[in-house]
Design goal:
This protein is α/β, with parallel strands linked by helices and 162 residues long. The chain folds into two domains: 3-114, 5'-nuclease (Rossmann fold, 3-Layer(aba) Sandwich); 115-158, no CATH class. The chain contains nine helices and five strands. The protein has a five-stranded parallel β-sheet. The two termini are 25 Å apart.
């Protein structure tokens, strides 16, 4: 499975302590250079910068041959979508609402961090309630009510012990 990631899912998963689910769920992840630069930015938490400084073997950085301009998107989002189109990615991990819509408009299969956490919980790689509680304590912008609703739906589908 070929998975391209934007910076937000990686940052959030580092911040909630569940970055390990990416290789377990998807094998390898590919990011473009602009995403690597965003991860290494001095404005990022130290744990994210440490990750960017010594990427694991399951993370590959690849430059798109052509970056398609997409108005109002950040360079990392634009490069991630361009790379996903070029490589015919199976999945794009992207959170920002406008970027997600642009991915879907380009017929890309896209999911955000919440769906990654739900998939990991379905595979029994983490406790979703704990992961959502950690997520609520980060600067990731998402409605706590939405997380509570997603948790309730997940528990109805998979049981409350998952």
């Amino acid at each position: 499975m070929l998975v391209i990631a934007d910076s937000s899912p990686v940052i959030v998963l580092v911040n909630v302590g569940h970055l390990d689910v990416l290789p377990k769920l998807f094998g390898h992840i590919v990011i473009p250079p602009a995403v690597a630069q965003e991860l290494a930015s001095p404005s990022r938490p130290q744990a994210v910068r440490d990750f960017a400084a010594t990427p694991p073997p399951w993370l590959r950085i690849e430059r798109p041959s052509i970056v398609q301009p997409i108005p109002e998107l950040h360079p990392g989002e634009t490069e991630a979508l361009s790379l996903a189109l070029e490589l015919h990615a199976d999945l794009v991990l992207i959170d920002e609402r406008r970027a997600y819509r642009e991915a879907v408009a380009r017929k890309l299969n896209a999911i955000g961090t919440v769906r990654v956490l739900e998939r990991a919980a379905a595979e029994k790689l983490l406790d979703l309630e704990n992961a959502f509680d950690r997520l609520k304590r980060t600067d990731f912008w998402i409605s706590q009510k939405l997380l509570d609703e997603r948790l309730k739906l997940f528990q109805q589908q998979y049981g409350s012990n998952t």
